[in-house]
Write a structure and sequence with these properties.
Blueprint (H helix, E strand, L loop, with lengths): L12 H7 L3 E2 L10 E2 L1 H20 L3 E2 L5 E3 H7 L1 H5 L18 E3 L4 H8 L11 E10 L15 E11 L4 H19 L5 E6 L10 H18 L4 E4 L8 E7 L5 E10 L1 H5 L4 E2 L5 E2 L2 E6 L4 H12 L12 E5 L5 H13 L4 E3 L5 H10 L4 E5 L1 H6 L1 E6 L8 E2 H11 L3
Parallel strand pairs: 3-6, 8-9, 15-16, 15-17
Antiparallel strand pairs: 1-2, 4-5, 6-7, 7-14, 8-10, 10-11, 11-14, 12-13, 17-18, 18-19
Helix pairs in contact: 1-9, 6-7
Length: 410
Amino acid sequence: MPPHLEEHTVKDHRRLGRELEIYHADPMIGAGLPLWLPAGAAARHAIEEYVREQERLAGYQHVYSPPMAKRQMYARSGHLAKFADDMFPAMGEPGEAEDEALMLRPSLCPHHAMVFGSRGRSYRELPVRIAELGGMYRAERSGVVGGLSRVRAISLNDAHVFCSLDQVGAEVALVLEMCARIHPALGFRADGFQLSLRGPGARYLGSDEVWDRAESLLRDALVQAGVPFEEVPGEAAFYGPKIDIQVRDLAGREWTLATVQVDFAQPERFDLSYTDSGGNQARPVMVHRSIVGSMERLMAHLLEVHQGAFPAWYAPVQLAVAPVAEAQDGAARAFADAALRSGLRAELLLDGSLGLRIRTAAQRKIPYLAVIGSREAAVGEISLRTRDGRQLPPLPHAEALAHLTAATHP
C-alpha cells in the first residue's frame, strides 16, 4: 500500500481503471482482452515514447515483427514443447501440413532470433541489441484473468541482445542500470530482486555446464550492482536462468515486472552465428530483457502506486483550461490550442459551473488547471492551479507554457 495514503482511500487498479476511464473490459470481446480507452492510451503512449527513447540512447535498434508464425518455428524454439497448453490452437487450412499452420506467439524471442539471423554478422557489430514493443498471447483460463494484471493479449516491452560470452556481464549490468533509472522516473522502485534458477524435475534446454556459467554471470551482475537478492530454484525460464525484478500490488501479491535472462539454447536451436576475430563462425549468447514488462501489468501497478494521480509527464490530460464565463471562451480556446501545439495534452472544460469544472479536473486527477477570467483574458495571462491545491501567480501565456512544458517532462 502506498505509505502516504490512508487505508480506506486506497483503490485497486480495476476500480481506478473504471473511474478514470483507463481501460474497459467488455464480455463481447472476451475475458483478458482489455480495451485501452483514450485516457489509458494517452498515458501508455507517453510511457512508450519515453522507454523507446531510453532504449535508443542505450544502443537498441527497434523492429516490428508479426504476432504469429508457423508452428514449426515454436517447435524449433522449444516453446511448443514447454507451453503448448498456454498457446492458442494452430490456424491451418484443410489439407495443410501440421507444421505449416500458423500460431499466435507466446513470446517474441524466436522472431528476434530471425532478425539477427537475417544476414551475416561480424564480431565488430556485437553486441546487437534488438528491441520491440510487441504483442504476444497466452491462452489463460477465463477464471484466472482479471483487470490488467493478468491478460490474454500482452503488449510486451521486450528486447534481445546478441553478444559474445565476455560481453554478457556488461549487458546485464546495463539492463540493471536502465531499470534503476527508468523505474523511479515512472514513480516506483522495485520491491525485490530474485535470481531464478533451475529446479528439480523440470525440462531445461542446455547442459549443466552452460547453466552453471549463465547463473554465475547473473549472480555476479547482481552483486556488482549492490542490490539485495534472493535465489529461488525452480523459477528459471526453460532456456536459461533469469533475474526477476519484483513489485507488490495492494493485496501484497508479488509480480514480476522487469526481467533479464541469459540464454545459450535459442542461438543453438536457430543456428545463429557471427564471424569472430579469427574468421571462424562463433555462436552468440542471447540476453533476453524487459525494462518495464508488459504495458498491461505496468499500468496496473502505476495506477495503484499513484492512485491514478500520475506524474505530470504521462498523465492522460496534463492541462485543463476553464474559462470563468462564456465571454472568456475565445481566450480559453486560444490558450488550449497553443498548449496543444506546444506538445501538451490539453483539454477545454466548458460545461457546468466553474466550481463543477474545477471539481471535475480534481476527480480526473489532472495535474494543472488554467482558469481564465475577465482580468486574465484582458491582459493575456493565465492563472494556474496544481492538482495538490497550489495556485501559481498569474503568468503571461508564453511563460505559462514554458513552465508547463518543463513541468511535464520526465
